[in-house]
Amino acid sequence: MPSILYTAQVTATPGSVEASDGALTLDVHEPSELGGTGGSTNPEQLMAAALASCLLESVRISAGTAGESIDDVSVEGSVSLSDTDGVGYDATYSLAVSLPNFANPDNVLAQAKSICPFLKKLDDVDVTLTD
Questions:
Q1: Strand order in 16-19's β-sheet?
Q2: How many Å separate Cα 40 from the centre of its chain?
Q3: Which residues contact 23 (CB under 8 A, 6 or more apart)?
Q4: pTM assigned to the model
């Protein structure tokens, strides 16, 4: 059985989210486009940030094995909500990865996608190479 290496724990309460270690405290509200109060971050932005930063860390690992520098690398994350025929929303996720001046950007990205724990668990995340 695998051993747990790290556990992130947050508590969400109406209007906020806070990490158990105090490193993250944010006001969280539904976007005004969806009828919320807006004016702060929202779950969709948090999800986009989590996906983008997770893939970036995986790119860092795979770029290191390929001898590449990540100084100019970026990952743009998007979460889009759409209405459904039923209750609630559907979400689509996309990541646009920039690996400028990489000798083999496709290989680095393929390895990064295979090791990113979030991408291994989520189906249908559209990941594209922008350079």
A1: 10-13, 16-19, 25-27
A2: 18
A3: none
A4: 0.93
Q: How many whole angstroms separate alpha carbon 67 and alpha carbon 56?
A: 16
pLDDT tens string, the chain, 131 residues long: the values are 889 999 999 999 999 999 999 999 999 999 999 999 999 999 999 999 999 999 999 999 999 999 999 999 999 999 999 998 888 899 999 999 999 999 999 999 999 999 999 999 998 999 999 97
Nearest Cα residue to 55 out of 131, 111, 124: 111
What is the length of the chain? 131
Residue 27, helix vs strand vs coil: strand
Buried-exposed string 91-116: b where 16+ CB fall within 10 A, e elsewhere: eebbbbbebeebeebeebbebbbeeb
Ordered strands of the 89-98 beta sheet: 74-83, 89-98, 125-129
